[in-house]
Design brief:
Elements lengths: L1 E12 L2 E12 L3 E5 L6 H8 L7 E6 L2 E2 L5 H9 L1 E4 L11 H6 L20 H13 L15 H15 L3 E5 L7 H18 L2 E5 L3 H4 L5 E6 L2 E7 L5 H6 L24
Parallel strand pairs: 3-8, 3-9, 6-7, 7-8
Antiparallel strand pairs: 1-2, 1-4, 4-5, 9-10
Main location: membrane
EC number: 3.6.3.28
Pfam families: ABC_tran
Length: 267
């Protein structure tokens, strides 16, 4: 079964045609690395997938559910199954690491915010939060403020928060872009280890081509709002990945008028 199915997806911002008939499928338990130059439409695609931006044409199915035809209540339940790891962590900086992880359970609780506050959280929630921190190697930092942590440590907290959410799909948008190379590799190792353990599905955008060659099951490349590369990771060539960053790459340039030389999408 596909965890994500995107069919003939189009997205406009006024007259700017950002996504241009995009097709992509990701099977359950698969890790797909998405590459492409700034301005190619990657971030817009990610926003469409997590419901932050409505698309204009085509369809998106998440875990078999049509994203645009769900009631608000069903859409909220579906979003609980999608964990997002951001480039800038999106943590509450002036509260503890433990509290940030507890926030990952917000969508699961009938009483909402109140039951996700550390002073009101149940023993079961508190144990789950500590187990998530233990998994990412930060149990000893549970009571520290997030603002006191390094960038790599903050991204570990963000991953622990996603574990607390019990998501089935992880959308990771440039999760190592703000980290040094050593911390970036550690975060990618941790992220892929965790999702493999739990059988989660991952769509992860990267710019670092050397990392893309080492992680995930498939490499998907975008150029000017279209997918032009879709191959198993072991078969990807560095030249093809580098080509994604050459020539017409942005959606504010004219649409591609010739067939790209990259391996055409097959999924």
């Amino acid at each position: 079964m596909n965890a994500i199915t995107i069919t003939e997806l189009h997205k406009y911002y006024a007259t700017l045609h950002v996504l241009r008939g995009l097709n992509l499928s990701v099977t359950q338990g698969e890790c797909v690395i998405l590459l492409g130059a700034n301005g190619c439409g990657k971030s817009t695609l990610m926003r469409c997938l997590n419901g932050l931006a409505p698309h204009d044409q085509g369809s998106i199915h998440i875990l078999g559910e049509p994203l645009t035809r769900l009631s608000p209540a069903k859409l909220r339940r579906l979003r609980q199954k999608i964990g997002v790891v951001f480039q800038q962590f999106n943590l509450v900086q002036n509260v503890s690491v433990f509290q940030n992880v507890l926030y990952g359970a917000l969508g699961q609780q009938r009483l909402g915010l109140l039951t996700s506050l550390s002073c009101f959280a149940s023993n079961e929630l508190r144990e789950r939060a500590m187990a998530a921190l233990e998994r990412v190697g930060l149990a000893h930092k549970a009571q520290a403020d997030c603002r006191a942590l390094s960038g790599g440590q903050q991204q570990r907290v963000a991953i622990a928060r996603t574990l607390m959410q019990d998501a089935e799909i992880i959308i990771a948008d440039e999760p190592v872009a703000s980290l040094d190379p050593k911390a970036g590799r550690e975060i990618m190792d941790l992220l892929l280890d965790v999702v493999t353990e739990r059988g989660m599905t991952v769509l992860c955008t990267l710019h670092q081509l050397e990392l893309a060659q080492q992680y995930g099951d498939r490499i998907v490349g975008m150029k000017a709002g279209r997918i032009v590369l879709d191959v198993p990771r072991q078969q990807v060539a560095m030249d093809d990945m580098q080509h994604l960053y050459q020539g017409e790459t942005r959606v504010d340039q004219p649409p591609l008028s010739t067939t790209p030389r990259l391996t055409p999408a097959t999924h």
